[in-house]
């Protein structure tokens, strides 16, 4: 036929005798036999149950307290006030009181939580400019069009940081107060060190300028603040000048959008250097003074404050331990059924 | 090609009006140019440098899948809709397009190179009275060109003159039809006189009128007008482009068709594409998947409308709506956004992967040593690479008999002479007394030799007839070493028999035949050859012996000969008929022989009329037939011959195996009923199945035969019903067209997959009609092979092709499709569930890069390895248990039902893969209290869970873990982790900020124990139910595969008995037929064919070095030109 003979000879076109070409590659052909499947099922059941128990014990040793302050305590009036957008610039402070029955041992984390806030809407998540937040001067003055309609303010100045995400940044602030028998003591919180290392050091940077003497305000000159913000980005943290601009940690935490509409975000970490908090949060009465700014009534949301300790396994989340226990039990049940069937039909 | 070209108007030079007749004048370029005939430049390439990109893209986007992705891409360019970055679609699309483009491009460059090389070949053209060396492409219609030995024919030429006597030329047509034997063409005498006189040729001004360009290789009609006289032209005067001139020093030809008009080019590029049933099922599935996709998108769009209405409006403070977007419009946009996101249910890589898998499995067929036939150095060949999996689903096999089931190597076995039968088994006859005998010839009856040597006149007449009445050509390389070139093996066997019994056919010239009769050289004058054809079924020669006696010798089918016997032979006829029946019962192929003395005066007169008829312009055939009929009358019976055609090795075992695999075998043969007994014997010996041997069947096929095309519907049904009650059906006296009709019938009413296997030109229609055509490359040329999808040398390889390759291919393809749909549906459903949590805003669950690379990189190779290497049981077990083949016939591995199960399975998996991570992450934090429920971490978790789960599922589906499987599976997982760590690295973010926003996610997530615990849980929940289900199924309802695999585990391979069985030497083993082919009788009679020119003779038949020649008594090369009537289904 058309093929050119590679080499002459009577067997010139004989195919190679390689294992690959003859489909005789050495191989392992496992089978689902009772000898492999049943022990595997019993093994998996044991592993799952043990894991479940271990996780359950771990989780039981953590503490968590959630306080919904949307309407609670004196915040009701603030809630009403925030309903009217005209009052947006008026401050409103309120206090919520709660009680901790058992000491929160170890590191205690202070979160704020939002219910029914969709940070995961596609258009919302797209509405940001990472190029701007990484401190590129080009993007600072010319934000990405994805930021629309929060790209330019009404004066035509580019907004920094632009976009819907930054614009809707959570702006309640909290002061946690411990009411001991003797006194009223403000619980000290670290307001830094609450972000991922990579976010703080790589993903978010202030604009780089050659003239190092410029203040942050000067660096951000020519940009507008996000429409809903009360303070410009270079003035977010009045107490720590290094926590301003794009590297403000509250901003960074907020910019890491939540995957689901109900979420909590880290606000602060208990400073355990000061008595009586060296062991954690002692049991007793507490209150939170809230600067109530963030309106939630528009989207039927709720706000809460969460205090929590963590284990190696993260915060207090009972799902995985229970899921492992249930799965373990189901596998065990299945294994027993399989054994019975095998006993009856195969033996 | 033509369509594309004409679409773009590239053929603008061509006439719009279809050419009705070609009219040209030799040596008159101006005259010929006025008709604007195409010149001899050919263009097989599709593109040039400018048209390549647009044309190729245009062609590629005509494919549905590509067009669909282009449509998606367009959707993505609309910012309101675009839910994914452009690269998610562009990267796979560009990859697929560029791969195809690279392949097309390199093909086309090769074609360009070829074209250029061909167009620039030099040929000597007669221009202005002298021969000039011109490029092929500059040759015009009407030019006279000179060809030399071993040159390719430049264009379709009218042969004018040649160096050889009688203006003959020899050509090889391998490029045209794949046949390597030489064919003879002859010029008209009137043009042959021109010889190589340049001046005469330059003044030659014949006008040719002929048919317009067409693709029929075997037909040419036209006339040559020269000096006011008309000469008819037929195929014999024409040299077609693509042939090679052999054994001819030079020849001159007139260009009739050039370049694109040549028959070679007209035959190009018309391939009917066969599609497999899986293909068709896949198309249905893809369409229903589109429907399913639309439903999912609709649900999500409605969800979006409701959400926008209830909540979105309130959320507008944080995410202002764009102008004019209300809830319904938002739902509309969302619908399209989800079309983009969920498009992964029909990934573009599906089609590419399917092609690759089929190609790979085709290569295995090419590479299989166990389908390689060393004697003819022929490996199996998958000529079509898109039909493999259908090989695993065959329900009906239609087989030719001669040459397919039998070897088509004939041995002279018995004969009946003057009422006495010879050939009963005794000792082997010693032919040493005859120094011209063929040493390989065997005969087992001494009495015949004795009778011949005694000088019995009937017996001598019998062998004289065999030595004279044939169209065999002898070749005598050395003194006494004869080789015969026969059109059909039967004929060769008969002439060889005569040779050994002392009637040695020594040489022939157009006018004479020289025979050594019992050592005495006798030359007969050859007066006429009344050649064989399928209607006449006989052949006669009229010779004049040295004594001046005129005799007509005739051999042919018994029924035909008996009709023409002299009444005086009636007694002999009876006896001979008995013998014939006996032979037929033994499965031998018989011929009856008869002779007649002719009156010289009558002969003179007959010859005149014969000449008249043979030069008649119209109804030439009919007139000749009538003349032949007239003279072949009143014959005297001599006897009959019986030739054995042995069954090929392993045929009974193969048939046994295949019928155990529940494949129904129909033998369609042109032989008559009585002669099939040996095959029946074979089949009955197995005692496995009932045999269809019903009179009604035969009468039906007889009826069909008479009506040829129009068979009434109910009769078709009747035939089918009767036939299908039997495991094996034998249809006799079937014409090639009917073969195809039978196949079509079964295809139409049984909806089963059919396979046709054959070796000759008469099987071509059947091979083309069946779902799969298999060609046996054997004795009868290459036509069957050329039109087949698979080819090999021996019928017994069919069982390996079906039971091993077919089964594996089907299994692999089904596993591939099931797994592929599983992994993509699972992938997509997770998006669907996430829609309920993200306000139906068409947010993706995964990183966009993961979406881009999932099908392309992370899961491509493991599933390819699965579908190229997987075997449920190895080939020996496949042979041991032919029943393993049954699931393919029943479509069990992949059907709509299996597809629905797959979808349900992936629905379950996707629920696990979305809701377990969701619940596990819902309210949790990192071990340092920081965030982990952010979108990016969740995306990473979800995609990692998915990838691990589908990888384990692949592991469960893999039955045959080669190192390649392991490497690809683990490699893909490693690549995944390597890629995410790279893409989520600082560097990538700093360089391509907007494309890689996931910076740090991998580092911050994958060091968390709860992330890994979540992955473990999802994997367990995805996989264990499947394991339990499969375990239970094997335990309670084991399939044959499970049982065999189980047994295979015990490693007790059964002994491999079969295949070493000694071949039975019984005479009852062979088939019977009357086999003969139309030959060169015409040439021989009219005294044109051969003149003893030793030089060319020697060269012509020098190719006897084939291994076959050493294994059989005599080597006959088939000179088979249009032996069977051309078929038009």
Automatic annotation (TrEMBL), chain A:
<keyword id="KW-1133">Transmembrane helix</keyword>
<feature type="transmembrane region" description="Helical">
    <location>
        <begin position="37"/>
        <end position="57"/>
    </location>
</feature>
<dbReference type="GO" id="GO:0005794">
    <property type="term" value="C:Golgi apparatus"/>
</dbReference>
<dbReference type="GO" id="GO:0005886">
    <property type="term" value="C:plasma membrane"/>
</dbReference>
<dbReference type="Pfam" id="PF03381">
    <property type="entry name" value="CDC50"/>
</dbReference>
<dbReference type="GO" id="GO:0045332">
    <property type="term" value="P:phospholipid translocation"/>
</dbReference>
<comment type="similarity">
    <text>Belongs to the CDC50/LEM3 family.</text>
</comment>
<dbReference type="GO" id="GO:0005783">
    <property type="term" value="C:endoplasmic reticulum"/>
</dbReference>
<keyword id="KW-0472">Membrane</keyword>
<feature type="transmembrane region" description="Helical">
    <location>
        <begin position="322"/>
        <end position="343"/>
    </location>
</feature>
<keyword id="KW-0812">Transmembrane</keyword>
<protein>
    <recommendedName>
        <fullName>Cell cycle control protein</fullName>
    </recommendedName>
</protein>
<dbReference type="InterPro" id="IPR005045">
    <property type="entry name" value="CDC50/LEM3_fam"/>
</dbReference>
TrEMBL record, chain B:
<dbReference type="GO" id="GO:0005524">
    <property type="term" value="F:ATP binding"/>
</dbReference>
<dbReference type="GO" id="GO:0000287">
    <property type="term" value="F:magnesium ion binding"/>
</dbReference>
<feature type="transmembrane region" description="Helical">
    <location>
        <begin position="816"/>
        <end position="837"/>
    </location>
</feature>
<keyword id="KW-0460">Magnesium</keyword>
<dbReference type="InterPro" id="IPR006539">
    <property type="entry name" value="P-type_ATPase_IV"/>
</dbReference>
<feature type="binding site">
    <location>
        <position position="589"/>
    </location>
    <ligand>
        <name>ATP</name>
    </ligand>
</feature>
<dbReference type="GO" id="GO:0005886">
    <property type="term" value="C:plasma membrane"/>
</dbReference>
<feature type="binding site">
    <location>
        <position position="670"/>
    </location>
    <ligand>
        <name>ATP</name>
    </ligand>
</feature>
<feature type="binding site">
    <location>
        <position position="763"/>
    </location>
    <ligand>
        <name>ATP</name>
    </ligand>
</feature>
<feature type="binding site">
    <location>
        <position position="762"/>
    </location>
    <ligand>
        <name>ATP</name>
    </ligand>
</feature>
<dbReference type="InterPro" id="IPR023299">
    <property type="entry name" value="ATPase_P-typ_cyto_dom_N"/>
</dbReference>
<dbReference type="InterPro" id="IPR044492">
    <property type="entry name" value="P_typ_ATPase_HD_dom"/>
</dbReference>
<feature type="transmembrane region" description="Helical">
    <location>
        <begin position="849"/>
        <end position="869"/>
    </location>
</feature>
<dbReference type="InterPro" id="IPR018303">
    <property type="entry name" value="ATPase_P-typ_P_site"/>
</dbReference>
<dbReference type="GO" id="GO:0045332">
    <property type="term" value="P:phospholipid translocation"/>
</dbReference>
<dbReference type="InterPro" id="IPR036412">
    <property type="entry name" value="HAD-like_sf"/>
</dbReference>
<feature type="transmembrane region" description="Helical">
    <location>
        <begin position="284"/>
        <end position="307"/>
    </location>
</feature>
<feature type="transmembrane region" description="Helical">
    <location>
        <begin position="84"/>
        <end position="102"/>
    </location>
</feature>
<feature type="binding site">
    <location>
        <position position="669"/>
    </location>
    <ligand>
        <name>ATP</name>
    </ligand>
</feature>
<keyword id="KW-0479">Metal-binding</keyword>
<dbReference type="GO" id="GO:0005802">
    <property type="term" value="C:trans-Golgi network"/>
</dbReference>
<keyword id="KW-1278">Translocase</keyword>
């Amino acid at each position: 036929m058309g093929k050119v003979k590679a080499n002459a000879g009577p067997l010139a076109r004989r195919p190679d005798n390689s294992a690959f070409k003859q489909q005789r590659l050495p191989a392992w052909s496992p089978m689902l036999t009772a000898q492999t499947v049943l022990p595997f099922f019993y093994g998996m059941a044991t592993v799952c149950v043990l894991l479940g128990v271990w996780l359950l014990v771990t989780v039981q040793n953590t503490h968590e307290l959630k306080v919904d302050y949307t309407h609670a305590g004196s915040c009701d009036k603030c809630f009403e006030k925030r309903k009217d957008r005209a009052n947006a610039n008026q401050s409103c402070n309120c206090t919520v009181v709660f009680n901790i029955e058992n000491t929160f041992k170890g590191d205690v984390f202070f979160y704020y939580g939002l219910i029914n806030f969709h940070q995961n809407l596609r258009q919302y998540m797209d509405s940001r400019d990472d190029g701007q937040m990484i401190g590129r001067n080009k993007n600072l003055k010319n934000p990405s069009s994805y930021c629309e309609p929060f790209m330019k303010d009404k004066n035509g100045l580019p907004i920094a940081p632009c976009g819907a995400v930054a614009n809707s940044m959570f702006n309640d602030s909290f002061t946690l107060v411990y009411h001991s028998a003797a006194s009223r003591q403000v619980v000290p919180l670290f307001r830094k060190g609450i972000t991922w290392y990579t976010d703080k050091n790589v993903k978010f940077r202030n604009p780089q300028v050659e003239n190092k003497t410029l203040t942050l305000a000067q660096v951000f000159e020519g940009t507008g603040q996000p429409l809903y913000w009360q303070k410009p980005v270079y003035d977010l943290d009045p107490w720590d000048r290094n926590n301003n601009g794009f590297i403000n940690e509250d901003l960074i935490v907020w910019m890491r959008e939540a995957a689901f509409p109900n979420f909590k975000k880290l606000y602060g970490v208990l400073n355990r250097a000061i008595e009586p908090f060296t062991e954690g949060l002692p049991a007793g009465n507490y209150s939170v003074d809230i600067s109530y700014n963030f309106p939630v009534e528009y989207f039927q949301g709720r706000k809460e404050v969460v205090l929590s300790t963590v284990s190696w396994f993260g915060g207090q989340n009972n799902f995985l331990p229970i899921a492992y226990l249930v799965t373990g039990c189901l596998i065990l049940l299945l294994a027993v059924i399989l054994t019975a069937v095998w006993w009856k039909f195969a033996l | 090609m033509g369509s594309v070209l004409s679409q773009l108007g590239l053929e603008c030079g061509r006439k719009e009006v279809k050419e009705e007749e070609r009219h040209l004048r030799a040596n008159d370029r101006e005259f010929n140019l006025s008709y604007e005939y195409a010149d001899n430049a050919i263009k097989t390439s599709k593109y040039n440098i400018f048209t390549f990109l647009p044309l190729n893209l245009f062609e590629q986007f005509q494919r549905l899948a590509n067009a669909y992705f282009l449509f998606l891409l367009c959707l993505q360019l609309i910012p309101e809709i675009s839910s994914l970055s452009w690269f998610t679609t562009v990267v796979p699309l560009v990859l697929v397009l560029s791969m195809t483009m690279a392949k097309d491009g390199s093909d086309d460059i090769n074609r360009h190179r070829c074209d250029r090389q061909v167009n620039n070949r030099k040929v000597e053209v007669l221009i202005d009275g002298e021969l000039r060396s011109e490029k092929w492409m500059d040759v015009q219609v009407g030019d006279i060109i000179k060809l030399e030995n071993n040159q390719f024919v430049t264009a379709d030429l009218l042969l004018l003159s040649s160096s050889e006597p009688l203006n003959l030329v020899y050509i090889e047509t391998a490029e045209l039809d794949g046949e390597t034997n030489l064919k003879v063409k002859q010029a008209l005498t009137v043009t042959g006189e021109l010889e190589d006189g340049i001046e005469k040729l330059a003044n030659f001004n014949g006008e040719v009128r002929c048919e317009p360009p067409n693709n029929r290789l075997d037909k040419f009609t036209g006339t040559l007008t020269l000096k006011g006289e008309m000469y008819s032209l037929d195929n014999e005067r024409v040299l077609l482009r693509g042939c090679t001139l052999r054994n001819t020093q030079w020849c001159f030809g007139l260009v009739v068709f050039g370049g694109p008009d040549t028959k070679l080019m007209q035959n190009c590029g018309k391939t009917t594409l066969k599609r497999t049933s899986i293909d068709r099922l896949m198309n249905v599935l893809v369409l229903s998947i589109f429907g399913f996709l639309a439903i999912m998108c609709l649900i999500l769009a409605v969800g979006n409308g409701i959400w926008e209405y209830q909540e979105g409006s309130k959320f507008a403070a944080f995410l202002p709506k764009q102008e004019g977007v209300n809830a319904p419009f938002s739902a509309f946009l969302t619908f399209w956004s989800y079309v983009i996101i969920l498009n992964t249910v029909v990934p573009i890589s599906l089609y590419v992967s399917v092609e690759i898998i089929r190609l790979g499995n085709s290569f295995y067929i090419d590479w299989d040593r166990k389908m390689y036939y060393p004697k003819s150095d022929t490996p199996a060949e998958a000529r079509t690479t898109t039909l493999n999996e259908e090989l695993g689903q065959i329900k009906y096999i239609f087989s030719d008999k001669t040459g397919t089931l039998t070897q088509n190597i004939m041995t002279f076995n018995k004969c009946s002479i003057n009422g006495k039968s010879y050939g009963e088994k005794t000792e082997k006859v010693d032919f040493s007394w005859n120094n011209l005998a063929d040493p390989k010839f065997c005969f087992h009856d001494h009495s015949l030799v004795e009778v011949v040597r005694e000088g019995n006149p009937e017996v001598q007449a019998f062998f004289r007839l065999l030595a004279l009445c044939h169209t065999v050509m002898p070749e005598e390389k050395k003194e006494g070493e004869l080789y015969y070139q026969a059109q059909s093996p039967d004929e060769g066997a008969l002439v060889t028999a005569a040779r050994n019994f002392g009637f040695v056919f020594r040489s022939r010239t157009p006018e004479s035949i020289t025979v050594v009769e019992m050592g005495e050289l006798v030359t007969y004058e050859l007066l006429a050859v009344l050649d064989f054809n399928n209607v006449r079924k006989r052949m006669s020669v009229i010779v004049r012996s040295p004594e001046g006696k005129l005799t007509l010798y005739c051999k042919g089918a018994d029924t035909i000969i008996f009709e023409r016997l002299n009444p005086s032979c009636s007694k002999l006829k009876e006896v001979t008929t008995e013998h014939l029946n006996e032979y037929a019962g033994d499965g031998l192929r018989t011929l009856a022989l008869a002779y007649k003395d002719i009156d010289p005066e009558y002969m003179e007169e007959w010859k005149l009329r014969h000449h008249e008829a043979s030069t008649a312009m119209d109804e030439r055939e009919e007139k000749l037939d009538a003349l032949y009929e007239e003279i072949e009358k009143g014959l005297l019976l001599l006897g009959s011959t019986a030739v054995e055609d042995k069954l090929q090795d392993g045929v009974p075992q193969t048939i046994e195996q295949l019928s155990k695999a529940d494949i129904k075998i129909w033998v369609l043969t042109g032989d008559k009923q009585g002669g099939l007994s040996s095959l029946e014997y074979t089949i009955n010996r197995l005692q496995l199945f009932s045999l269809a041997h019903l009179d009604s069947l035969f009468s039906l096929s007889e009826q069909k035969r008479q009506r040829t095309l129009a068979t009434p519907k109910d009769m078709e049904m009747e035939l089918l019903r009767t036939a299908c009650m039997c495991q094996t059906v034998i249809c006799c006296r079937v014409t090639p067209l009917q073969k195809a009709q039978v196949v079509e019938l079964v295809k139409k009413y049984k909806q089963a997959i059919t396979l046709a296997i054959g070796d000759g030109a008469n099987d071509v229609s059947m091979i083309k009609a069946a779902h799969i055509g298999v060609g046996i490359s054997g004795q009868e040329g290459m036509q069957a092979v050329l039109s087949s999808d698979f080819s090999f040398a021996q019928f017994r390889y069919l069982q390996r092709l079906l039971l091993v390759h077919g089964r594996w291919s089907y299994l692999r393809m089904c596993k591939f499709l099931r797994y592929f749909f599983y992994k993509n549906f699972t992938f997509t459903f997770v998006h669907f569930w996430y829609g309920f949590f993200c306000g139906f805003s068409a947010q993706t669950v995964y990183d966009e890069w993961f979406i881009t690379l999932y099908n392309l990189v992370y899961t491509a190779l493991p599933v390819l390895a699965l579908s190229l290497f997987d075997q449920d049981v190895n080939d020996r077990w496949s042979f041991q248990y032919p029943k393993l083949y049954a699931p393919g016939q029943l479509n069990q591995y992949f059907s709509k039902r299996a597809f629905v199960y797959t979808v349900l399975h992936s629905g379950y998996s996707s629920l696990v893969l979305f809701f377990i991570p969701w619940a596990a992450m819902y309210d949790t934090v990192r071990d340092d209290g920081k965030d982990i429920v952010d979108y990016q971490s969740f995306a990473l978790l979800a995609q990692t869970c998915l990838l691990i789960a589908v990888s384990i599922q692949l592991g469960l589906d893999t039955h045959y873990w080669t190192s390649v499987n392991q490497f690809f599976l683990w490699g893909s997982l490693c690549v995944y982790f390597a890629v995410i760590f790279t893409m989520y690295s600082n560097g990538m973010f700093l360089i391509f900020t907007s494309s890689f926003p996931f910076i740090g996610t991998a580092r911050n997530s994958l060091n968390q124990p709860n992330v890994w615990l979540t992955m473990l849980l999802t994997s367990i929940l995805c996989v264990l139910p499947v394991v339990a289900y499969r375990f239970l199924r094997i335990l309670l309802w084991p399939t044959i595969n499970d049982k065999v695999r189980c047994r295979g585990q015990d490693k007790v391979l059964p002994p491999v008995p079969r295949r070493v069985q000694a071949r039975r030497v019984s005479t009852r083993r062979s088939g019977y037929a009357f086999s003969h082919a139309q030959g060169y009788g015409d040439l021989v009679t009219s005294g044109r064919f051969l003149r003893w020119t030793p030089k060319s003779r020697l060269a012509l038949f020098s190719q006897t070095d084939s291994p076959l020649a050493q294994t059989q008594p005599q080597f006959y090369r088939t000179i088979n030109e249009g032996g069977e009537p051309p078929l038009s289904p």
